[in-house]
Give the backbone structure.
Amino acid sequence: MPVPDQLYANVVQFLQAQPNYYRHFGPDWWRVKRLLKQAGYSRAQFHGLGDNFPDPLAEAATAELSDEEFVQTALARQRENAELRFMLPHQPSFDNDGAAYYLVDSDVE
């Protein structure tokens, strides 16, 4: 089953209102960003949807998940990070193994 368009629209709406929201995705951001672009979103909707994709290893860590499974996992991580702390610059989120992950996307920052 494909990811509902409204789900992508909701993520973009949050990004428009609070650009640093992307940090809450931690290492999942790179695949979320790619999926948003594939769904037709661009810099016209959110300036952070440029062509910067510097971490193929982060995407590879979730490659076995379908897009739908991945989005559900990414949103759960985002909610957890958002509830635990506000993502300040250079504050880590955590990857699937619990290791600190420092996310900086030059398209957003």
Summary: Strands lie at 93-94, 100-101. The mean pLDDT is 85.
